[in-house]
Amino acid sequence: MRTLKLTLPQYWAPALINGDLSGFDDDEEAEFARFCIDMVNEHGSCHCIDYDAESADFSRWHDAVAYGVLACDVMTFTFDVT
């Protein structure tokens, strides 16, 4: 199994782990959807298999900046990209 670790917004955790988008406003949902589409296009899936709560930190620079997400609390998420 090949994995990919990304530093992403902590508030994305419910969506990444449980598919729960209920906490997103329209803009956040659009940012997350664009991320998922790019993951599928590049890696064939957007399947988060783990996260590291110990990595939680506040950061301006993270892997979701390209989707319009500003500085926020982030964590490391692991994806199956096999």
How many strands appear in the DSSP assignment?
Answer: 3
| Low-confidence runs | none
Strand order in the sheet with the most strands: 1-3-2
Shape: globular
Tally the helices: 2
How far is the N terminus from the C terminus?
5 Å
Write down the Rg.
12 Å
The tally of structural domains comes to 1
User: What structural category characterises the helix and strand content?
Assistant: alpha+beta
The quaternary organization reads as: single chain
Q: Which H/E pattern describes the elements?
A: EHHEE
Kindly report the average pLDDT value.
96
Strand-residue proportion: 35-45%
In short, what is this structure?
This protein is α+β, with helices and mostly antiparallel strands.
Strand-helix topology:
Blueprint: E1 3-9, H1 13-18, H2 26-43, E2 47-59, E3 72-80
Antiparallel strand pairs: 1-3, 2-3
List keywords for this structure.
82 residues; alpha+beta
Protein described:
- The chain is an alpha+beta fold and 82 residues long.
- It has one domain.
- The protein is built from two helices and three strands.
- The chain has helices spanning 13-18, 26-43, and strands at residues 3-9, 47-59, 72-80.
- The chain has a three-stranded antiparallel beta sheet.
- The N and C termini lie close together (5 Å).
